[in-house]
Write a structure and sequence with these properties.
The chain has seven helices and 17 strands. It is flat. It has one domain (about 20-355). About 25% of the residues lie in helices and about 40% in strands. The strands form four sheets. Strands 4, 10, 11, 12, 13, 14, 15, 16 and 17 form a nine-stranded mixed beta sheet that branches. Strands 1-2-3 form a three-stranded antiparallel beta sheet, with no helix packed on it.
């Protein structure tokens, strides 16, 4: 059996429900002063914002569970554990995310829209794993400053400013991961290149002559066969609150750092509820797998060139996980306009919107035009007698 580029994880039995809820309730308050705690990024602890005391996280050892995809799509109540969450929906960008229960107003971490909380309860598939924040807010802010100062063709004032306005929001984004053993029957053609002598008429020194040239041609042969590949942890974002180009550039994520889901990792942060369902997410994963399978088919066909006419992809015992991945979200203002920026909460990768300096771009175009004109003038001065 072949293994996909994402590695492989064994399907494990689910752990007993309910233990995480009790543990979270016991650890939400500081053992020293009783204040509400927040998870400290990069540390296996909860930080008290009031007295600074560090409270160790005691995680009940459970296994990361792979869930049966087909059973879940058939809405088998035993297929995947559900949880009830209380969330708020932004009226501007429609993002749905958790909100601290003791707060009655705030802003959407995705678009900055002011929100008066009106929480609603609904059920969703419970996350099986969470990738805790490794980058603290101050570190993320420093990464944004470095990113702003490194932008090409950015206005000089923006580089000197080099900062985000307001706080960065720590948000866990919802993702699906999919595993599948695939078997694919294909039909295609194998192309083999050969050279054939062809006589062509050309003009040499003012005379018509016939020359023999070797011309490249292709012979095509029918091809069919079967390839197999195992895929593990094919990652699909279960949200459309951020532009795809931004979230794609934040990859790759090191999923080796996933922890069994515990709500204590979410204390002090917000978590977005998934908006792309399990079935739609698998369609995206299927397209990702299809691209890799096509490479396997071309290799199996062999020859110099390959054509794929049909692929029949079958999935055997596909499984999934619902996981949460960390992101810092913020914004900066320039010339009266707001630009959004995001930071990978695991490795500090920065992506975002940015303004361009029209003056710098104009000077570059002018410089390139001047170089082109100088080259043309040099060629003109050094052309042989008789001209072109």
């Amino acid at each position: 059996m072949e293994f996909g580029p994402w590695g492989r994880r064994e399907i494990e039995p689910a752990s007993a429900p309910g233990s995480d809820t009790a543990l979270r309730e016991a650890q939400l308050t500081c053992e020293q002063c009783g204040a509400v705690l927040s998870y400290a990024p990069g540390r296996n602890s909860l930080q008290c914002d009031y007295c600074g005391h560090v409270n160790a996280i005691e995680i009940v050892p459970v296994r990361i569970v792979e869930q049966d995809l087909e059973a879940a799509l058939q809405k088998d109540r035993h297929a995947a554990p559900l949880e009830e969450i209380r969330s708020v929906r932004c009226s501007s960008c429609q993002a749905t995310f958790t909100f601290d229960p003791d707060r009655h107003a705030g802003e959407c971490p995705f678009c900055g829209q002011s929100i008066v909380t009106d929480t609603s309860a609904h059920h969703q598939i419970k996350p099986q794993a969470v990738l805790p924040f490794e980058i603290a807010e101050e570190t993320a802010r420093g990464r944004v400053r470095t990113w702003l100062r490194s932008l090409w063709f950015a206005p000089g004032r923006l580089k000197r400013m080099g900062q985000v306005s307001g706080a960065l929001h720590g948000v866990y984004l919802p993702y699906w991961t999919y595993d599948s053993d695939t078997e694919t029957d294909y039909v295609g053609r194998r192309g083999e290149i050969y050279l054939e002598p062809v006589q062509v008429r050309t003009r040499v020194n003012g005379r018509d002559v016939v020359q023999t040239k070797m011309v490249q041609k292709v012979r095509w042969y029918p091809a069919r066969g079967r390839v197999r590949r195992h895929f593990d942890d094919v990652l699909v974002l279960a949200s459309n609150s951020l532009p795809t180009w931004m979230t794609d550039r934040l990859e790759p994520w090191d999923l080796g750092g996933l922890k069994p889901y515990s709500a204590v990792y979410l204390t002090g942060f917000q978590a977005e509820a998934y908006r792309i369902g399990l079935g739609d997410g698998f369609n995206v994963a299927h397209d990702k797998m299809k691209s890799r399978i096509a490479s396997d088919v071309r290799m199996d066909i062999g020859g110099d060139l390959q054509r794929i006419e049909h692929m029949d992809i079958r999935h055997r015992e596909p499984t999934f996980k619902h996981v949460l991945l960390p992101l810092w979200l913020g914004a900066f203002r320039y010339s009266g306009k707001t630009y959004h920026v995001s930071v990978n909460g695991q490795n500090g990768e920065v992506q975002g919107e940015r303004p361009y300096s029209a003056w710098k771009i104009f000077l570059l175009v002018l410089f390139i035009a001047a170089i082109g004109a100088a080259i043309a003038y040099y060629v003109y001065l050094n052309q042989p007698p008789g001209g072109f």
